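Please, structure for the following, as tokens.
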Amino acid sequence: MKHTKSMIYQPTAESEELYIFANNESRLYPQIEAIENSLRKKINKGIYETEKAVDAFYYAMTAASDLYKKYFGYAFTVTERYTAAVEMANNFTYDNI
């Protein structure tokens, strides 16, 4: 994934809201579960890379942002989505390594 200058880690209330929404939305569960299963395989093979995990979770956060906009009319910025993806990757790493 090509990283833009907007893809920076900057925790905000909005990024936390997106993270919580993504973790609790049943429509996103299959996508997040697939990402986590794939990353577990990479951990077992010894080829896990945190940056690639963040990239994978970024796609899920983009889907979460789209769904959030559909429900509530607010779309999250690139920075907020990237920050939520970093948090997802960090929490996944702490739980599995």
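DSSP finds four helices and no strands in the chain. The first helix runs from residue 13 to 24.
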